[in-house]
Amino acid sequence: MAEMVKQQELSVFVDYFGLCLRDADDARLPALFPDGYEPGPFLTAREGRLDVTSAGHTHWAHLTVQVWDGMPPKPIGDWEEDSSASLFCAAGKLQVRGVTGPMPEQVTLSNGPAKWSVRLLCTGRAEVAEAANRGVVHDVERYTAQFWPAP
After folding, report:
1. CB–CB of 89/114 below 8 Å?
2. Residue 147 CA, distance from chain mean position
3. pTM, entire model
4. For the domain 4-149, what is the CATH code?
5. Is a pLDDT exceeding 90 seen at residue 132?
6. Is 76 helix (H, G, I), strand (E, B) or coil?
7. Residue closest to 43 by CA, chosen among 113, 144, 127
8. In the chain, what are the domain boundaries?
C-alpha cells in the first residue's frame, strides 16, 4: 500500500484563467509558461510543465501537493475535475506560476531528477466561476495534486 511521503499546502494566484506547475530548472524547458498556454482542457502536460485551466479569471486558489511512494488512493470528495498526466522534473522541485508571474514558494518532489505520475483534482469550480466575476476571492477553487514515481 502506498504511503504519503510529504504534503505541502499553498495559496496560489490564478490570473487569466491559468496556472502552471513547472520544473524549477527552467533552462531545460523548451517553452516557458505562459508560452503556448491557451485556456482549454483542465490539465495539459507539456515538456517539464503542467498547465492548468481554472474556472475563474483572477483569484487565489488553495493547492495541496502530496508526494507518495506509490500510486495513492483518490481522495474522498466531490471533485469537479480529475485528470492524470506524467512529468519529468530535472530539478526535483516545481515552481508554481500564474500567467503573469511566479509564486514565491516551490514544491519539492525529490532530491534530483525523476519522472512522476500526477493526478490533479479540483473542486469549487462552479462557485469560483461566478464569484470571481464579482471580485478577487480566496480559496474557493481548491486543487489537490498527488505525485508518485512513474513506472
Report:
1. yes
2. 10
3. 0.94
4. 2.60.34.30
5. no
6. coil
7. 144
8. 4-149
